[in-house]
User: Fold this.
Amino acid sequence: MKRFLGLSTRGRIIVGVVAVVIIVGLYWVFAGNSDTPAYQTAIAEKKDVVEEVSVTGQVVPVTRIDLGFERAGRISSVPVGVGARVTRSQILAALDAGGITSDLRQAEANLRVEQSKLTEILRGTRPEEIEISKVKLASASSTLSETQRSALNIINDSYAKAEDAIHNLTDQLYSNPRSGNPSLNIVVPQQLDNDLEAMRATFEPILVQWRKEIDEISPTADQRANSTKAQGYLVQVRTYLTSLALGVNALEPSASLSKTIIDGYKSDTNTARTNVNTAITNLTTADEKIRSAESAVLLADEELRLLQAGSTPEKISAQRALVDAMQARVDSLRDELSKTILRAPVGGIVVMQEARVGEFATAGKTIIAVVGDAGYEVEAYVPEVDIGGVDVGDTATLTLDAFGEDMKFTATVSTIDPAETIREGVPTYKVTLIFEDTENRVKSGMTANVDILSNMVSGVIAIPQRAVIRREGRKFVRIPSGDTYTEVEVVTGLRGSDGTIEIVSGITEGQVVITFLEE
Assistant:
């Protein structure tokens, strides 16, 4: 220090300059060359997103409020008359809303059902549900096995009926029926005689082969193929018996052939045909039961596999969409129901009451007038681009220039003019708001800054609107990662009047998004 003070003025200047150069150099090294990316960020957080329509209005004296239904309909009740004092939201008149009420109850029930399904899907499959599904599969498999065993018994029975039809009931018409050269003992046309003897000669080896095949069938085998083969054998026997019946039914009594014998032949032949037809029917029924049992097993197995696999994202998304659709239906019906009830927008006195029970009310026609207790109301003109978000009954927050921004008042939209008013070349609509509470200091003619709450969602994830990028009809946000970033597609909801926007899906609470990026 002493050395520094001992330097001449010129020397001290040189030393100072050198020191400044060194300091600047160090700053450039440690700060100027920082790789910190040039962007601004915000954090996705849960909050209420509020959509407001902001306009400027003017305080005017309250004279009277003319009221009419928003929709046409038959008046069902008029609980108040002229001179009655009413409170805010008190019912003044109502339309018949039986159909809407019924539809609303059904829609609410449907919504509860779909919400329950969504809850069940999100919860996932319970172990006991899987066990129940396993029991169903085991039961279906057991039924299939029993059906297969029953089918084998029916196949055996069909063989027995075919064998009885040939050996016991119709072989009495032949000499040497079981040989390779049977001879028919009754007189029939020569061609039929030849055909019958040829067919009978083929059946003995067929019956032997069929019996062998049945004996080799496994009780656990698929009996559908065996049933089909048995039906094929029975069809051959039925064809043979049909031809034999032609010859027997044509027999006439003679010296060597009595009527009693002929009747016996006919009876036995008919019995043989009936038994064979019954066997064919039994086989067909058994085949249908096997098909049904197999289908039940496949269905139970598929249900079990679906339960074990759990819900897919596509299924969850589809169910959520269904819940949203049901909710929209409920909201729409509730809105329609609200239009069937005429309520007092403010407390006051009824000065006109033209509603009559049973009469048909026309939409928009004034039938009731109320003079409010409040001394003043606010008239504001809303541009056409914003009027769609404003409804009668909406709440609003307003300030008066006379009292500054710290004093806030609450008001309710009481009426909206159906016809436009051109102001400075722009179509606007006159909106009247009723103070919920005023102070004696409020005067007519004061300028009011009105924020009408048109929509709000609570506790949703929100980010600044400037963080959302729109490209080719899709929306993205940029997530920073070191000195770079990644783009993530998002689905947005309500746009807040404060510059925020609701994020329905794509990012989660606490994630950082880029709001400004230096290009």
